[in-house]
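INFO  loader      accepted 1 record
INFO  loader      residues=289
INFO  predictor   begin
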Amino acid sequence: MTVAGLLRFVLAAVLLGAAAAKLRAGGSARAALSSYGISRPWARNALWAGTIAAETAIAVALVFDLTGAAAAGAILFGAFTVALLVAIARGRGGSPCGCFGARSRIGWPAVARSGLLTASFAALPFLPHMEPSTDAWLAIGLVAALAAIAGLGIAVFALARELGELRLAIAPQAALSLEHEGPELGSRLELIERFERRAPLALAVFTSPGCALCMALEPSLRLAASDPEVELELFDEEADADVWAALAVPGSPYAVVLAPDGEVLAKGTFNSLFQLESLLVAATQPVSA
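INFO  predictor   done
INFO  writer      dumping tokens
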């Protein structure tokens, strides 16, 4: 296969991928056309369908090496490039562009991508129709492999960013505090005698031997213990079985926050530093009447 033939198939694959992405996005891709000032639904539907048809037709023409296929591709992507530039000039950067599905955005990366494709289509007729040497094919393969690795890295980075945004969008849950579990809120416990009472809050944390979550939370417990406003004591399910039974601790990890006089201010099961801190925050909030 010649260099020109290889590029033809690559460009055809890009066109078919773009058409498939638009088709799969459906309504999202059609709605994205409003970013270019196309407000009427019928016009967006017609342009969406026409673009898919044009990309598919040019891709087929490239595969069969039909005359004018490269020129048609250059004109199509040249129009895309101009449309992106006009949209950016109108302050619509960051809006959906519908180029490669619903996630594509108007911006300079999209302009660069569209411009590169335009140049590739324009250069296609001028490429030599000769078989590359073995060394040339090896060089082409190396460049393609490096490009694939770079693309994979970008995809992984984008996925990590999406996961981060998803975690930020999901509000963390507070500790699970059930009225019938553990000591009663407002009651006073003799457990306070196990503390030195050198801080405004006494934090009793109940753990179990072999509890994987308890071991995973050790850094969080050390962080809580470093707070000068908190005095932390651990109560093991085996070593302090009497305390567990007296307070009806449901399981581990479990925490009870006490005032210096032994009053139960907050209690609950936790599995993260945020949930442990939520108990400390609840203990400092005034009780509503």
